[in-house]
Specification:
The chain is of the alpha/beta class. It contains 16 helices and nine strands. It is globular. The protein binds nicotinamide-adenine-dinucleotide.
């Protein structure tokens, strides 16, 4: 049978998405709370799923002239929003209402309308190690005799969640971890599992969550530019458990816009000296990325272009990108009227801290086609 035939047969055997879909999120900060609050607001008819491919996009069937373009959600058997159940882990105490208030992406009035729901979700204690996220201090963290023990505690959490839901997925929405390179411990599952017992420094918390999810047969998506599942060991486990892995940063916000712009620049052979962008959320992730060791964003956001031209983006944290008087900064802050007040303040405040304009401009570069793109932030 041809590979296409095999794929068709496999697709035909996909079961409809019935029952509750459990979404497990390590890292319940700005992204996670906005997602969860948004889903709840939509469920209650308080908001529309603007920007959601699954909810609002259509798929064309047949010829353009056939006029058959159903909504994806009506054509593909995906879970209904009413069937989503959320849980997760974080190093901070409190519930998701507190976390969403701290993130200040949504305003207070919006949050008040769904407050009881957000208050009903409290992140579980996290597997956390400050070595991988320097600027944060864990307040609600698991303790264990080694990394293997900690990962097994995550498996216990998953097992409990499985009793309340029918299917599960895990999405890493935690802070960006320090830059890690592949080493011997990442090469095989055997080496990785031994490394978990030996507390190998090459194994970060996000890898432990991924390992736990895959061991439980649960798909894992990576929303950060961390190395996490880009290693043969976890790919081996993914295949073995028939549990898919995907993701490398969310490619939302600024990264998304850059992926649109980069191919256009390349087509016209326009050289790019650098990207200037702001972390409009000004949240903990911004603080984490302020750490010079958090170079993951600079080298980790790969292949962002749909046309495949921006093959590698590097970035620098926004806070060192401009002086308060920079016209670039004032353009960014004044034009973002849809962001929260705090976000704009945070953006300005971080620029005030830096006091250097030099990093917002890179030396003259060769044409885009011959070099990689450089960005200030990957939001
Ligand atoms: N904000 C965006 O628009 C955007 C876009 C693309 C990608 N991302 C990526 O998504 C991730 C989340 O971004 P955010 O804006 O929500 O950041 P955030 O700082 O608001 O939230 C991250 C949360 O992760 C928690 N955390 C850190 N390490 C953890 C661990 N080991 N276990 C459990 N929790 C942990 C932190 O306490 C924090 O609450 C980041 O990696 C970021 O790079 C964000």
């Amino acid at each position: 049978m041809s590979s296409t035939g095999a794929a068709t047969q496999e697709a035909a055997s996909i079961k409809p998405a019935t029952g509750k879909l459990g979404i497990m999120i390590p890292g319940m900060g700005a992204v996670a709370t906005t997602l969860i609050a948004g889903v709840e607001a939509i469920r209650r008819g308080l908001a529309k799923p603007i920007g959601s491919t699954s909810q609002m996009s259509t798929i064309r069937l047949g010829k353009r002239t056939d006029g058959r373009s159903p909504l994806i959600k009506d054509f593909v058997p995906i879970a209904h929003l009413d069937d989503l159940v959320f849980t997760g882990w974080d190093i901070f105490g409190g519930n998701l209402y507190d976390a969403a208030k701290t993130a200040q992406v949504l305003d207070r009035d919006q949050l008040e309308q769904i407050r009881p729901y957000l208050e009903s979700i409290e992140p579980m204690p996290a597997v956390f190690d400050q070595h991988y996220v320097k600027r944060l201090e864990g307040k609600k963290v698991k303790t264990g005799k080694n990394k293997c023990d900690l990962a097994n505690q995550i498996r216990n959490d998953i097992a409990e969640f499985k009793t309340r839901t029918d299917r599960q997925v895990m999405i890493w929405c935690g802070s960006t971890e320090i830059f890690l390179e592949q080493t011997a411990v990442h090469r095989t599952l055997e080496a990785f599992e031994k490394g978990m017992i030996d507390n190998d420094p090459g194994i970060s918390p996000s890898m432990l969550y991924a390992w736990a999810a895959l061991k439980e047969g649960i798909p894992f998506a990576n929303g950060a530019p961390n190395l996490t599942v880009d290693i043969p060991a976890l790919q081996e486990l993914s295949k073995k458990m028939n549990a898919p892995i995907c993701g490398k940063d969310f490619k939302t916000g600024q990264t998304f816009i850059k992926t649109v712009l980069a191919p256009a620049f390349k087509v016209r052979n326009l050289g790019v000296s650098g990207w200037y962008s702001t972390n409009i959320l000004g949240n903990r992730d911004g603080e984490v990325l302020d750490d010079p060791e958090a170079t993951t964003k600079r080298v980790g956001t790969t292949s962002t272009s749909s046309a495949g031209s921006a093959t590698r983006c590097s970035s620098r944290s926004t806070s060192s990108a401009a002086t308060p008087s920079s016209p670039l900064l004032s353009l960014s802050t004044s034009s973002s009227s849809w962001t929260s007040r705090r976000a704009r303040q945070a953006c300005a405040a971080s620029a005030f801290r830096s006091g250097s304009a030099s990093t917002s401009r890179l030396p003259t570069a060769p044409p885009a086609s011959t070099r990689s793109m450089t960005s200030s932030s990957s939001r």
